[in-house]
Amino acid sequence: MVQLLNYIVWNPDIYAIQIGNWGLRWYSLCWLAGLIGAYFMVKWLFNNQNITTITTTVDGKKVEKNVFDPLFIYCFLGILIGARLGHCIFYQPDYFLTSGQHFIEMFLPIHFMTDGTIKFTGYEGLASHGGTLGLMIALWLYCKKTGVKMWQVLDNIAIATPITACFIRLGNLMNSEIIGKVTSVPWAFIFEKVDKYPRHPGQLYEAIAYAVFFFVGWYFYRVAKKKVGTGFYFGLCITLIFTFRFFIEYTKDIQVNFESGMLINMGQILSIPFVILGIYCMFRSKK
Asked: 3-class secondary structure for 191-253?
């Protein structure tokens, strides 16, 4: 048993703003802040590269078409749907794929109660690996629809992605979820909503790392802007994020029971293909 020292006692209210029975959760606010931050970053990048609009021909006339505006909707839906399905399929298939009501709960933010009533819960459970995959599919559809070059979009999105990832992990921290293993390090958090043991603040580790990764990508963009469109930034982003994710999992407690006794957990297993893809894209960018 770890002796309790002057650890950080963590028990924030889940609501950032609450008026009566209505409240805005910190988690939702962090998601929103992350998406807005990435939105303005990508908008700046598109303007900086003069690709916000493209020239198309309509009825024999050349017209300017804004291709940036629909990008946010594609990204938002791709991340949300992918993250939700990723959690349900990768981490809780024994629940969500075993009954019709549970299957509905995959797509709607509700929970069917045992007394026959329905409770609004919000989306409890979002997986970053699923969100990344969903985003990639959404961007492929976006490029197919608008005609913008796929690698150019992927590189620009990759530069901004760590902003969103950072805020999402801060949201996890506010929710006291995805907690770390019990430890005696002096910066340990006691997540009172969970138990009274000092634990690694794994969410904070990731949030700080993703903030650093954003500045790494931003530095490379400032010195090697011409690499946008080669896949370098996309490869750099997912290599950094998922390599770090693989190793930081060793500080985290298991998220689902079936991970007990596994040599590497589900988060690490899902990270390996993304690391391989990222390294491939960086090597490919040299050609």
From this structure: ECCCCCCEECCHHHHHHHHHHHHHHHHHHHHHHCHHHCCCCHHHHHHHHHHHHHHHHHHHHEC
Quote the CA–CA distance of 56 and 52 in Å, as a whole number.
13
| CA nearest to 238, candidates 149, 125, 126, 129 | 129
Q: How confident is the model at residue 1 (pLDDT cuts 50, 70, 90)?
A: very low
pLDDT in tens, 10-51: 999 888 887 766 677 888 899 889 999 999 999 999 999 999
- Rounded to the nearest 5°, which phi and psi values hold at 83? -65, -40
Distances (CA, A) of 21 to 17, 75, 118: 11, 31, 17
Euclidean distance between CA atoms 98 and 104, whole angstroms: 11
The upper half-sphere exposure of residue 19, i.e. CA atoms within 13 Å in the direction of its Cβ, equals: 1
Q: Give Cβ neighbours of residue 147 (< 8 Å, ≥ 6 apart).
A: 54, 56, 67
Place of tokens 């805005």: 24
Which burial class, exposed, middle or buried, applies to 11 when counting CB atoms under 10 A from its CB (0-12, 13-18, 19+)? exposed
pLDDT tens string 50-65: 999 877 766 677 778 8
Cα angle, residue 221 at apex, residues 218 and 223 outer, rounded to 5°: 115
The answer to whether 196 and 14 have CB atoms below 8 angstroms apart is no
Selection from 27, 272, 16 nearest residue 169 by Cα: 27
pTM summary value: 0.86
Kindly write down the DSSP assignment for every residue of 5-63, as one continuous string.
-SPEEE---SEEEEETTEEEEHHHHHHHHHHHHHHHHHHHHHHHTT-SEEEEEETTEEE
